[in-house]
Amino acid sequence: MIIIRLIAKLHNSAYARTPFCTLQDSGYVFTSNRGTALEPRNVTRLFVSTLKKEGLDRIKLHEGTRHTAATLMLAQGIPVKVVSELLGHARTGMTQDVYSHVMRSQQQAAAAAMDALLSVDDGAS
């Protein structure tokens, strides 16, 4: 996932190129090479260049990270109600409509689990 790689790159950038003794302890998770807060325009530039390098269509950073976060949460089994609230959706139906592709795989997994529970092994093979 491109977003995951981008986040990892942002998180590790300061530590990969700069001796620890010169970093400021700013309390930020993602920092510049000096350990200070990242400039939004630099994050956007990195995001756009990463998309281009990966041959992906240009999308807005906020929309891409928001959609990725919601997709990952749903894929991990976080209840739709919780994800919907975090996204600020007025109704869970909106979340279900937008992310139905993720929930389809969960439905298939639930059906397979029920099938396994209800299957009777009569010993005939």
Topology of helices and strands:
Blueprint: H1 2-17, H2 40-53, H3 61-75, H4 80-87, H5 92-98, H6 100-118
Helix pairs in contact: 1-2, 3-4, 4-5
Estimate the global geometry from the Cα principal axes: elongated
Rg (CA only)? 21 Å
Q: What structural class should be given to the helix and strand makeup? A: mainly alpha
Helix content: 55-70%
Instruction: Write down the secondary-structure element order.
Output: HHHHHH
> Ranges with pLDDT <50 over ≥5 residues?
none
Average pLDDT, to the nearest integer?
Answer: 79
Structural account:
This protein is mainly α and 125 residues long. It has 6 helices and no strands. The protein starts with a helix and ends in a 7-residue tail after the last helix. The model has no long low-confidence stretch (mean pLDDT 79).
Brief digest:
The chain has 125 residues and is mostly helical. It is built from 6 helices and no strands.
